Amino acid sequence: MKIVERELLDKILAELKLSSSELADPDTALRLGKILSAGLIATGSITRYKKDYQISIRLTDTETTAIKGVIVASGRDLNGLVQDVAGKIMKKIKTAYPIRGKVMMLEGDRVVLNIGTEAGVKNGMVFKVLENAAAENGGTVRLKPAGTLTIASAEPDLAYATAAGQTQGLKKEMKVEEMMILQ
Fold first, then answer.
1. What span, in angstroms and rounded, lies between the C-alpha atoms of 40 and 180?
2. How would residue 175 be classed by pLDDT, with cut points 50, 70 and 90?
3. Who contacts 131 (Cβ-Cβ below 8 Å, separation ≥6)?
4. What is the pTM of this model?
5. Residue 93 and residue 111: Cα distance in Å, rounded?
6. 74 close to 47: Cβ distance less than 8 angstroms
7. Is 120 exposed, middle or buried (0-12, 13-18, 19+ CB in 10 A)?
8. Is 79 helix (H, G, I), strand (E, B) or coil?
9. What's the pLDDT at 55?
10. Would you say 92 and 69 are in contact if contact means Cβ atoms under 8 Å apart?
11. Taking a C-beta distance cutoff of 8 angstroms, is the pair 159, 103 a contact?
12. Which of 15, 61, 86, 159 is the most buried (most CB within 10 A)?
């Protein structure tokens, strides 16, 4: 995730001759997200009612304009509230945009993936392996789970994983996708 500094945002707004209050307009926010090459833009507000705070955030996909998540939280401890909302934002982003890659090669019982730490891969992460299933109704090829991999080690652009069970069915170019482990 890349976060845009307020200073850069202000420069871009000045260049576009927009005020920060115009960011409340969803169309303006989406335009700005596309200019910044952002896949997702978060907009929202923090409101104070006496001693209580309410944070409302909306996550919007800049390509499709689909709402990927809405988060509303309220409480008295602003620091705790911000931490809670940040955790919920990360969970929504991980659910909407899991890490994806492909099997590059098989080395004995190790599986080498074409993604690494630069994509967010960490030791212990679990990925499902996906294979093409039969096309349905004369068209769309579906992906079906073909096993799971656990990351043993990761480099910036590669990850080494072990398969849960047999590696016989695994093939080069099979797709992998991060599995969400619910806590």
1. 19
2. very high
3. 143, 144, 146, 169, 171, 174, 175
4. 0.64
5. 26
6. no
7. middle
8. helix
9. 93
10. yes
11. no
12. 159
Closest C-alpha among 53, 52, 84, 62 to residue 71:
84
CB 24 within 8 A of CB 43: yes
- The single residue listed with the structure tokens 């730490």 is 117
**Which domains, from first to last, does the chain contain?**
6-96 (3.40.50.10070), 100-178 (2.40.10.410)
- pLDDT at residue 64 in the model: 79
pLDDT digits (tens, 9 = 90+) for 120-165: 999 999 999 988 776 666 666 678 878 899 999 999 999 999 987 6
Cβ atoms of 141 and 135 closer than 8 Å: yes
For residue 1, give the amino acid letter. M
Q: What is the number of helices (H) and of strands (E) in the chain?
A: 3, 9
pLDDT of residue 167: 57
